[in-house]
Design goal:
Helix content of chain A: under 10%
Number of helices of chain B: 0
Distance between the termini of chain B: 31 Å
Strand content of chain A: over 45%
Largest sheet of chain B: 7 strands, mixed
Radius of gyration of chain A: 14 Å
Oligomer: heterodimer
Largest interface: A-B, 25 and 27 residues
Radius of gyration of chain B: 13 Å
Chain lengths: 116, 115
């Protein structure tokens, strides 16, 4: 019940295209859904995050769409650039107050390659 | 640069040995998290400390232990090492004032290789 399932495992997109990565969860106690970007040799870095009281959040070229009833959320990268080539992780964390507060459960990751 | 530092960057050791990984959180951050990243298991939460006290435990083996010191730096101790412990170990920190969830900033990681 703690799992977060992410797809696809890898994604190849042409420059200027839209990259879409999907995640699904089962634990209804999750109430914070961040996306992390990781470049080779670096630690993950927060890209954008959403809470279940909104269905969409946009920051620049990055948008999270959230479907609470389906327990799914996705990352859309518009106008994808070669510099976006990295591994993307979705994650989820439960609501505050429990002993597992702050603990992130990660998806398996998606390796995104944007061709010039 | 996230402001979280981890040492050493690389560690090569033999099975059965014990190692200590060190993490210094961002200035002002009270919470430290440890994660393990491996090819087969992905990124997995190990343990969290908040202001010196253990807050949450994940899939951490009994051979592994951690602590957070008064100056807020943290150490992850791995003992009786096995080949399967080879992985990237990340430390993350967050401020978490007044119980509010805040962004976790990840360090650059320590790559552990057990031969």
């Amino acid at each position: 019940q703690q799992q977060v399932k992410q797809s696809p495992q890898s994604l190849i997109v042409q420059k200027g295209g839209i990259s879409i990565i999907n995640c699904a969860y089962e634990n209804t106690a999750f109430d914070y859904f961040p996306w992390y970007q990781q470049f080779p040799g670096k630690g993950p870095a927060l890209l954008i995050a959403i809470r279940p009281d909104v269905s969409e959040k946009k920051e620049g070229r990055f948008t999270i769409s959230f479907n609470k009833s389906a327990k799914q959320f996705s990352l859309h990268i518009m106008d994808s650039q070669p510099g976006d080539s990295a591994t993307y992780f979705c994650a989820a964390s439960p609501n505050a107050g429990g002993t597992s507060y702050g603990k992130l459960t990660f998806g398996q990751g998606t390796i995104l390659t944007v061709h010039p | 640069d996230s402001g979280v530092t981890q040492t050493p960057k690389h560690l090569i050791t033999a099975t059965g040995q014990r190692v200590t990984l060190r993490c210094s959180p961002r200035s002002g951050d009270l919470s430290v998290y440890w994660y393990q990243q491996s090819l087969d298991q992905g990124l997995q939460f190990l343990i969290q400390y908040y202001n010196g006290e253990e807050r949450a435990k994940g899939n951490i083996l009994e051979r592994f232990s951690a602590q957070q010191f008064p100056d807020l730096h943290s150490e992850l101790n791995l003992s009786s090492l096995e080949l399967g412990d080879s992985a990237l170990y990340f430390c993350a920190s967050s401020v978490e004032l007044a119980g509010e969830r805040s962004e976790q900033f990840f360090g650059p990681g320590t790559r552990l290789t057990v031969l």
